[in-house]
Design brief:
The protein has twelve helices and twelve strands. It is an alpha/beta fold. The protein has a six-stranded parallel β-sheet, with helices on both faces. It has a six-stranded mixed β-sheet with strand order 7-6-8-9-10-12, with helices on both faces. Keywords: DNA-binding, Transcription, Transcription regulation.
């Protein structure tokens, strides 16, 4: 393994155990060697070495199946590499999430991973903090300073996408918000507004519709925007589920995407390439974030002393252009007879 990656055996051990003191390029080389050799750690050897198997719980309640699928892929891969036992618990927002959290604390889990929307549940975070259970937040729009977190810059990503749509020539750009209870939703709206301001375009609340990050809410939001007397020529949805719903609504109304209307999404889940036309979207490295989350949490748990600073890691996003965007159609004016 060490020879294949061109590093020392100690460096390989640090990567597998999720320790932070490894350069990103070196970590990538080791992970590539692990994948190429189909390596899996020997639990007995790790136990003798004193590492022991950790039990980490993942609480999920995500309305986007695409996001959750990508998230689980990365989580399972990194857990296998780090010899971590994963405990999956589905939560319904409300009293059930507290019941599940209390049960996990009572069972003595070593750490907890919280993807959205549970990553912003104040009640859950308070319970875990009081019990001193190491916790990592994934894709949080505004993580507390005292908790480990990995995400992207949601505001900058939305700004980049809106600028792209503006560069195509669109000036009436609709926006579908995500769940109002998630800070990432507000950050994406801020990015949209900031990009409009760079072109001197006044923010129009009538071009913003509320969604919940679900396909169903995207259908309702798209209908609302396209029912306007002066509908937008482009719609930017806060995730791929709602963008896919917007494409469906456009097709139902006899509109061609992208000739009649541009539709763009956010996340770059499998859904983005499972519909026609394929979505132009922001690639949020969901699987990479979940891998990093497990590695960061394992390192925090196995560290005998507190870290000098809490790890808040920002990963890069990418604008992926596909077939759902184009310049606005120039229609001839109707001349009264």
């Amino acid at each position: 393994m060490a020879r294949a990656a061109g590093v020392s055996a100690m460096t390989v051990s640090r990567v597998i155990n999720g320790e932070n003191n490894v350069r990103p390029a070196t970590r990538d080389a080791v992970n590539a060697a692990i994948a190429a050799l189909d390596y899996s750690p020997n639990p007995a050897a790790r136990s003798l070495a004193g590492a022991g198997q950790l039990r980490i719980a993942l609480l999920y309640s995500n309305p986007s199946a695409g996001f959750l699928g990508e998230f689980l892929v990365g989580t399972l891969e990194q857990a296998a590499r780090a010899d971590v036992q994963l405990i999956f618990e589905k939560c319904e927002i409300g009293d059930h999430e507290l019941e599940v959290t209390r049960d996990l604390i009572a069972r003595g889990v070593d750490g907890v991973v919280l993807p959205p929307p549970l990553n912003e549940s104040a009640a859950v975070l308070d319970l875990l903090s009081e019990a001193k259970v190491p916790t990592v937040l994934v894709a949080s729009g505004q993580p507390p300073e005292h908790l480990i977190a990995v995400s992207i810059d949601n505001r900058e990503a939305a700004f980049t996408m809106t600028q792209h749509i503006l560069a195509l020539g669109h000036r009436r750009i609709g926006f579908i918000e995500g769940d109002a209870n998630q800070a990432a939703s507000a950050a994406r709206l801020e990015g949209y507004r900031a990009a409009l301001a760079t072109q001197g375009i006044a923010f129009d609340p009538a071009l913003v519709a509320r969604g919940l990050f679900t396909y169903r809410s995207g259908l309702d939001a798209a209908e609302e925007l396209l029912d306007r007397a002066d509908p937008p020529t482009a719609i930017f949805a806060s995730n791929d589920d709602m963008a896919a719903a917007t494409v469906a609504v456009a097709h139902r109304r006899g509109l061609d995407v992208p000739s009649d209307i541009t539709v763009c999404g956010f996340d770059d889940t499998l859904l983005a390439t499972a519909i026609w036309p394929e979505l132009t979207t922001i690639h949020q490295p969901i699987a990479d974030m979940s891998r990093a989350a497990i590695a960061m949490l394992v390192a925090a748990i196995r560290r005998k002393e507190p870290a000098k600073g809490v790890d808040h890691r920002l990963l890069d996003f990418t604008l992926i252009r596909r077939q759902s965007d184009a310049a606005p159609r120039r229609r001839p004016r109707t001349v009264a007879s």
